Amino acid sequence: MLLFNKPFRVLCQFTDAEGRSTLSDFIPVPGVYAAGRLDYDSEGLVALTNDGRIQALIAGPENKTPKTYLVQVEGIPSEDALHKLRSGVLLNDGMTLPAEVELPGEPPAVWERVPPIRFRKTVPDTWLRMTITEGRNRQVRRMAASVGHPVLRLIRVGIGQWDLDYLKPGEWKEVPSPERRGNKGKLSGKKRPGP
């Protein structure tokens, strides 16, 4: 199994008819596939495997594998907005499960994005640390927008028992197969510090 720090504007697949950057530009290992997706305009941790069981453990909605993100949003979320995220919000495809949401205090130490996010002097931004256990299309972005805080930057830093560790954008490493927790086949989780 491989862990990869996907850069901004890289497709989470190995081929693209439109000539965009893909996983094949970074990972020379044949026969592995992304276990779940990370959007073209999102960055961070992607797990790759050639084992269907592991793919299902990570990406299967029934397993509720936690995925943790650093989320830079426009504006400063109120307690009401944070409460809504922590309780679940109504999206066009139904109510989400509650998210764990924290304000890290200090901005996280993350790499510079190329190109950088747009900067506006009159609109502040805030970093959130969000953990969700679903994998709906663009879910974190849609949840944040639903409470009035569009996402400027999204970095996945954890999937189940794995974290981004010290991988730089474009780097990958091999890790052992996942542990299982109990007899439900869920991946172990652990509290992890930011990058």
Would you give the CATH topology?
Alpha-Beta Plaits
Total E-strand runs: 13
Count of spatially separate domains? 1
CATH arch. level architecture: 2-Layer Sandwich
Give the biggest sheet.
9 strands, mixed
- How much of the sequence lies in strands comes to 25-35%
Helix and strand sequence: EEEHEHEEEEHEEEEE
- Which stretches of 5+ consecutive residues score pLDDT under 50? 181-185, 188-195
Q: Determine the mean pLDDT.
A: 89
Shape: globular
Q: CATH H-level name... which superfamily? A: Alpha-L RNA-binding motif
Helical proportion? 10-25%
Kindly, what is the distance between the CA atoms of the first and last residues, rounded to a whole number of angstroms?
A: 21 Å
- Secondary structure class reads alpha+beta
Describe the structure.
The relative contact order is 0.24. The chain has a single domain (2-187), classed as Alpha-L RNA-binding motif (Alpha-Beta Plaits, 2-Layer Sandwich), CATH 3.30.70. The strands form three sheets. Strands 1, 2, 3, 4, 7, 8, 9, 10 and 11 form a nine-stranded mixed β-sheet that branches. The chain has a two-stranded antiparallel ribbon with strand order 5-6. The chain has a two-stranded antiparallel ribbon with strand order 12-13. The chain is 13% helix and 28% strand. It has three helices and 13 strands; from the N terminus they run βββαβαββββαβββββ. By secondary structure, the protein is of the alpha+beta class.
